[in-house]
Amino acid sequence: MARVALVTGGTRGIGAAICLALKAQGRTVVANYASNDEAAAAFQKEHGIPVYKFNVASFEDCEAGIAKIVAEHGVIEVLVNNAGITRDGTLVKMRRDMWDAVIDTNLGSCYNMCKLTFEGMRERKFGRVVNVGSVNGQAGQYGQVNYAAAKSGIHGFTKALAQEGARYGITVNAIAPGYVDTEMVRAVPGEVLRKIVAKIPVGRLGHAEDIARGVAFLTADDADFMTGSTLSINGGMHMY
Ligand code: CAA
Q1: Mind listing the pLDDT tens digit of every residue in the chain (240 residues)?
Q2: Does the keyword section mention Lipid metabolism (predicted)?
Q3: Is the distance from the beta carbon of residue 106 to the nearest atom of ligand 1 less than 6 Å?
Q4: Is 237 inside any structural domain?
């Protein structure tokens, strides 16, 4: 039986590319999404990947969403915490709700989703977890104290959980994407984005598939000696 892989924020952008890469790897893939019903329906129709709408920032919503997925497809053995949002602004302009939304969605979701799946992985002595961080969690970014803190938190979370899973056949790794050509990055003001791209040695934005390839590598069944690591895929923007 193919292992079930769940990708949060999996119907658009990097998450959608991850879903396709894991499907090509032979996984039974399911995608979570938060709000864009139209994009999710189109994604499901085009790729035959079932979609589940729930808010990963809410523990109760995750509990209900995961229970539904397990009932319909079986236990989750591969988990990719990809869902993320931005609420950019310099600290002086950043309201508390902008901070909370980003911390809860980007970092709180990792707690929620891992908390609800990790015990089962331990019992079965197999699990693959990939948390999607960011170059901006490694290097910081003007206008992103919330996002940088959440993504940096993901990198620490990953290293701690990796230690807890190691004896049970569970690997926990992070990917740190650079600037990838997605709706999130296209929302950055044009002039600002041009300056950012000028600092990428490869000379272009990444493709979602560049990141998905890394996730497929880290979640392979035989990738069992790599854990607690952060794979940076950023066009050379931050060599770490
Ligand atoms: N370093 C120093 N100064 C900078 C700067 C930088 N990197 N960037 C902007 N500034 C300056 C501007 O020149 C401007 O200065 P003046 O007022 O003297 O002209 C000032 O900062 C702008 O300050 P504002 O008060 O207007 O800033 P703001 O609160 O309105 O925020 C911003 C502006 C939202 C930060 C905008 O610059 C922006 O969107 N920046 C890009 C943020 C970014 O990279 N987001 C990534 C989103 S994608 C993503 O996150 C995916 C991933 O993982 C990579």
Answers
A1: 899 999 999 999 999 999 999 999 999 999 999 999 999 999 999 999 999 999 999 999 999 999 999 999 999 999 999 999 999 999 999 999 999 999 999 999 999 999 999 999 999 999 999 999 999 999 999 999 999 999 999 999 999 999 999 999 999 999 999 999 999 999 999 999 999 999 999 999 999 999 999 999 999 999 999 999 999 999 999 997
A2: no
A3: no
A4: no
28 lines ligand 1 (CB under 6 A): no
Q: 90, 154, 237: which to mutate for ligand 1, most atoms within 8 A of CB? A: 90
**Ligand 1 contact via 103 beta carbon (within 6 Å):** no
Helix, strand, coil percentages (3-state) for the chain, rounded to 5, are 50, 15, 30
Q: Which of 33, 147, 168, 240 is catalytic?
A: 147
Q: Is residue 147 annotated as a catalytic residue, yes or no?
A: yes
3-state per-residue secondary structure call for 101-125: HHHHHHHHHHHHHHHHHHHHHHHHC
Question: Which CA distances in Å does 52 have to 11, 29, 36, 222, 240?
Answer: 10, 11, 11, 28, 36
Count: domains in the chain:
1
pTM > 0.90: yes or no: yes
CATH of the domain at 225: 3.40.50.720
77 domain-assigned: yes
Task: Pick the residue whose CA is nearest to atom 5 on ligand 1.
Answer: 142
Task: Give the range of the structural domain holding residue 94, as residue numbers without chain letter.
Answer: 4-232
Q: Is the CB of 147 under 6 A from ligand 1?
A: yes
Would residue 81 count as lying in a domain? yes
| 238 domain residue, yes or no | no
